[in-house]
Amino acid sequence: MPHDHHDHPHALLPSDPALRVKALETILTRKGLIDPAALDEIIDTYQNRIGPQNGARVVARAWSDPDFKAALLADATPLVAEMGYFGRQGEHMVVVENTLQTHNMVVCTLCSCYPWPLLGIPPGWYKSDAYRARAVREPRKVLAEFGVTLPEGAAVRVWDSTAEIRYLVLPMRPEGSADMDEAALAALVTRDSMIGTGLARVPA
Predict the structure, then answer these.
(1) Which amino acids does the record list as binding Fe(3+) (predicted)?
(2) Residue 64 labeled ligand binder
(3) What is the pLDDT of residue 104?
(4) Catalytic residues
(5) What pTM, to 2 d.p., does this model score?
């Protein structure tokens, strides 16, 4: 039959997303449109040199330095740029603070806008249709599925990233971290805590 799904071009691509990406990469490489070595370099950069550790350093400094924290919440972009975290997907940064009264959570309802210079490559779930829809519609249920239980009466505020603005959550500093230096504090900051779908680690 003309409309049999087996005849559809998409049926020739693997169903698994990773295999589809690999198939497309192979095709583009054979056509000379991409350089595998350059692609590997880009992936390595965002996975190992640009990643959540950058955002964690910003959070740790804010926890340690009240003046830096106040300036960060007022206008984050120049401060994070001074720390060397700037560029594509991080042109305009806004930092929002979690408190006992308000828990912030970030989503991009239209696509997957994400602060790459501070958090690296976005996780798969952040780009999923389910997260993008449910984070706005039922944020408390989504947080519960991530294992986040909020204090009684705490409000949830959802921030929608756009092509112009990227958000970073400043998580609450965990108890028992008062005597820790910035390097030790940074180790307590998780990627999810800076998206708002997690909390900072409690010191051992």
Answers:
(1) 108, 111-113
(2) no
(3) 98
(4) 108, 111-113
(5) 0.78
